[in-house]
């Protein structure tokens, strides 16, 4: 029988010998675990550093080269400043080139994001909440269709969407970009998963017993509980709509309706066209101006996303 068991049976405190044995055992365990943890932390640190470089190096290249003139772009080191600091002149030239078409593209992109991404978030929230909290015939089939839609790549739907909108006479209009952007199967699935766990059925039943209608229950009670999921869906849809390139490319033929990604790609393609004017400094500066708003929006929304997830984990 060990000293600790003897002390426990007699009601006395364990002896120093037993305490020493326990301490030495814990020390041995710590020594055997610590090197493994150190190796894991070093490996994770290296991986995170590589991922950070992968994300920051292109951004650094964009910032550095947006400060250069046309000649400095081809006659200097790509990852460091050189020659005349021409950032502000490049910004002015970007906004005034071709009668300020860049500003028109920026406005188009904002409209597509506000209406398309905002509508996608609202519809995903309503539909996800309805699927999670209401029983109706065909509910399982609807959910199966949504899961199937998530598995279909967007490029496979491009031609059918174009034929559909062409038949409706909506091609080369903003609606041909806005309406498809308002459908987010992944956002609906995310809201459904979150609403099923985050909103207790007892809470909704208590509100119904107090005489609250379904619309009031959703906007007063459920919507507050769904805030983290709503912000997450909004983040994904805003980024996807802002960076959307393929859909506007096939739907729009008039440059007046282009979003920023398609417009900048058109500027970049001018250098290979017959009689086209090469403007790489404006393409780089325009790309930098395109990155800044979406990065700021992502960082702004991220704090609400993180605080919502933290509140949910505490609950």
TrEMBL record:
It is found in: Cell membrane. Keywords: Cell membrane, Membrane, Transmembrane, Transmembrane helix, Transport. It holds the Pfam family BPD_transp_1. One of its GO terms (biological process) is transmembrane transport. The keyword Transport applies. Its main location: membrane. InterPro entries: MetI-like (IPR000515), MetI-like_sf (IPR035906). SUPFAM superfamilies: MetI-like. The keyword Iron-sulfur does not apply. Residues 1-21 are annotated as: Disordered. PROSITE patterns: ABC_TM1. It is a multi-pass membrane protein. Belongs to the binding-protein-dependent transport system permease family. This is Carbohydrate ABC transporter membrane protein 2, CUT1 family. It comes from Agromyces cerinus subsp. cerinus.
């Amino acid at each position: 029988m060990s000293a600790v068991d003897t002390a426990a049976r007699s009601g006395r405190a364990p002896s120093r010998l037993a305490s020493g044995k326990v301490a030495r055992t814990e020390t041995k365990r710590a020594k055997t675990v610590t090197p493994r943890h150190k190796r894991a932390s070093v490996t994770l640190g290296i991986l995170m550093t590589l991922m950070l470089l992968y994300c920051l190096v292109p951004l650094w290249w964009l910032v550095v080269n947006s400060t250069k003139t046309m000649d400095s772009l081809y006659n200097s080191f790509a990852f460091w400043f050189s020659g005349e600091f021409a950032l502000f002149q490049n910004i002015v030239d970007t906004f005034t080139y071709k009668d300020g078409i860049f500003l028109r593209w920026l406005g188009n992109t904002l409209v597509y994001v506000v209406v398309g991404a905002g509508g996608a978030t609202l519809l995903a929230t309503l539909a996800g909440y309805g699927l999670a909290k209401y029983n109706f015939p065909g509910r399982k089939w609807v959910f199966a269709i949504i899961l199937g839609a998530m598995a279909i790549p967007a490029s496979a739907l491009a031609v059918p969407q174009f034929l559909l909108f062409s038949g409706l006479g909506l091609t080369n209009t903003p609606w041909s970009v806005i309406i498809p952007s308002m459908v987010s199967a992944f956002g609906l699935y995310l809201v459904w998963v979150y609403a099923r766990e985050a909103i207790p059925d007892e809470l909704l039943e208590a509100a119904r017993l107090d005489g609250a209608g379904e619309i009031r229950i959703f906007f007063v009670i459920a919507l507050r509980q769904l805030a983290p999921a709503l912000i997450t869906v909004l983040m994904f849809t805003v980024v996807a709509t802002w960076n959307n390139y393929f859909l506007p490319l096939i739907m729009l033929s008039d440059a007046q309706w282009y979003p920023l990604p398609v417009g900048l790609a058109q500027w970049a393609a001018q250098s290979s066209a017959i009689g086209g004017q090469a403007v790489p400094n404006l393409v780089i500066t325009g790309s930098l101006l395109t990155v800044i708003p979406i990065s700021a929006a992502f960082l702004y929304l991220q704090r609400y996303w993180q605080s919502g997830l933290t509140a949910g984990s505490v609950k």
